[in-house]
Amino acid sequence: MVVRNCTLRGRSGAYTIRFADGRVEEIEEQSGPGTSAVGDSETLDADGALVTEPFVNGHLHLCKVYTLDQLGDSAIAQYHAPGMGGAMTAIEAAAAVKRGYQREKLLPGIRRALELAAANGVSHIRAFADTDTTAGLEGIAAVMEGREEFRHAVTVQAVAFPQDGVVRDPGAAELIRQALEMGADVVGGIPWIELTDADATEHIRLMMDLAGEFDRDVSMLVDDAGDAGLRTLETLAVETHRRGWHHRVTAQHARAMALYPEPYFRKVVGLLKRAGVGVVSDPHTGPLHARVRDLREAGVPVALGQDDITDAYYPFGRNNMLEVAFLAAHLLWMTAAEDMEGLYDMITVDAARVLNLKADQYGLRPGGPADLVIHRHATIREVLRDHSAPAVVIRGGRVIARNGEYLPG
Ligand SMILES: [Zn+2]
């Protein structure tokens, strides 16, 4: 397949992209706007629109999608209250929905969310599934089944996630182990939910032990409440460095960072850089958010995530990372041209860096995978203004979506 008349980021002129064997074979500058088909390859005309890598969603609670109506608004009201003082109460209330978890009941919502991902050009999702004594293994099993069904369209990284704690929820650690044995990709964690600092540290150590034993990456939700005294981001960075797990660990949310005293914030930034820990932020799903601009300026890689789709914590969401970036543009006040480039990086190349995607998995370059999106406009500003689905989504050299419609194999 060949895509002609592409506008590429940071370059002038029009380009032709050639694929072969599921890889980008060549990216070549055109002497002028080409029109004719090349050989007998399938040729697409981008018509001067922006063509980039597909999107990366650094954080999605995939087992919970579309469960809001089962629960009502009690948890949302607590989580979104000013100052985020009720975050722990919200998580406790939201746990009720998991008592009815059954793999077959969860799958229709998971499929719907993954179809949206494909339609919106999302190629990779770090997908959290509650794995605890309430959910059992039903959530992670459903997410892994969705992962296999959509493997041709979206790469789902299934995170075995002890949402209600590890020390607080005796038996959860053993379920995480079983999920890893079943093939979960990533070890999760939420140490700040524990009741003492010592338990939070134990939570991090137990989950990092499993990551070491099973050779897995780690994603933990840290310091996710309106409490400046939370310290689990720091502990995670210190443990990561101590264990040599550099570039394999992400910190999600870290909303209390907005309240840290400045000297402490700067110390944590130094620890994150030393440990190679990136941050995934979801500014649209809570009243506080990580200091995205300051982290980026200090050289800490930052990704954005969808976080939730119509669950106990957030009523909207379409697995559309342009929509997430559009919302973040307002919440972070990133509206200058350079800022918008940064927003786009945080849903593409920077997010890939945070998730430790390798050169053969992600990146629009010769030798990279034959995955890209063709937009309807030539500039990032227009693409963000519209935040509509790409005109064309290509995965593995094949068109898998057009104009927001997923085209199953
Ligand atoms: Zn989350």
Describe the structure.
The structure is a single chain. Helices cover 35% and strands 20% of the residues. By secondary structure, it is an alpha/beta fold. The protein has two domains: 2-53 and 363-406, Urease, subunit C, domain 1, CATH 2.30.40.10; 55-354, TIM Barrel (Alpha-Beta Barrel), CATH 3.20.20.140. Strands 6-7-8-9-10-11-12-13 form an eight-stranded parallel sheet. A hairpin with a 2-residue loop joins strand 2 (15-20) and strand 3 (23-29). Helix 4 (103-119) crosses helix 5. The longest helix is centred in the middle third of the chain and has 18 residues, at 197-214. The protein is globular and about 65 Å long. The two termini are 17 Å apart. The model has no long low-confidence stretch (mean pLDDT 96).
> What hetero molecules are in the model?
zinc ion
**Shape summary:** globular
Stretches where pLDDT falls below 50 for ≥5 residues? Answer: none
Structural class by secondary-structure content? alpha/beta
- The side-by-side strand order for the widest beta sheet comes to 6-7-8-9-10-11-12-13
Biggest pleated-sheet summary: 8 strands, parallel
- Global Rg: 21 Å
Figure out the total of helices.
Answer: 14
Classified by CATH, the class of the largest domain is Alpha Beta
Give me the CATH fold name of the largest domain.
TIM Barrel
Number of strands: 17
Strand content: 15-25%
* Number of spatially distinct domains: 2
